[in-house]
Target: HTH araC/xylS-type domain-containing protein
Amino acid sequence: MPINFFKHLANQHGDNILKIIPPEHLKEVIEGFYLFKAGYPKERELFFNDGYPVIALMQGKSENVSISIDGRTQCVGNMWVCGGVLRNIYGESEIHFQECLVIRFRPVTFFKLFGINEDCFQKKQVFNFSEIAGHGFEKVKEAYYDCLSLEERMEVIVNFLSEKMSSYCYPKILTDIQNYIDRQGNLTVKDVLDSYKVSLNYKWLERNFKKHLGISPQSYLLMRRFLKAYMDLDSFTSKDLLQVALDNGYYDDNHFIKDFRRFSGVSPKAYFNRQ
Model:
């Protein structure tokens, strides 16, 4: 997702994002539906993922999104998927999008819902939804864009996802661990293990994160740390780079700069000057 999405996600009382609670039978697989109304700029915007796979449905049938991966541009269409660890990936567009519907999935059930391997995001982090949607996708896409109201479009999507529901078999404690990480923020793998030492060990955690979330626990924690540091740097102009770095568990500002380059391809100074 555009990294701007997460800034508004953290403040759901604003005018730029509307959360729609999923029906009870879908809560196990969907964290929430979000009408993202902040708009999508014509300029390049950094894409990022916080550990929750998402499917984004653009408002208009002709609103196709293009992404740039290490300088190579490709179109991912008007319904696209985003997940895994995103590094130096930017969204590009010739028009200014007004809004899109974002479906934010729970990682431990996302892969089973669409019958895909847990390593699919290691190969591609952003791609057209048609690649995993399965049977009936074209009919659903046509029905979605034929609808004029949000309520009608939600009904189309909920019916489509409901048909995909099946019995799940996964360690329930993974959802608890993920929620714990999201609440606490700056943690290490050791912190997680110490909190659940009666229930698991490192090998279990590593194996089940990769199996059910598609990434290692270390990668998940690094993504969450960077996202929090980015939002601090973007929001709190009174904080300097070193203070932001230390507040978010980095050793120093150079450590944070190195991470910033890994995810965005440039230094914080170059990134925000360009913005």
Q: What stands out?
A: The mean pLDDT is 83. The chain has two domains: 4-164, 173-274. The chain is about 45% helix and 15% strand.
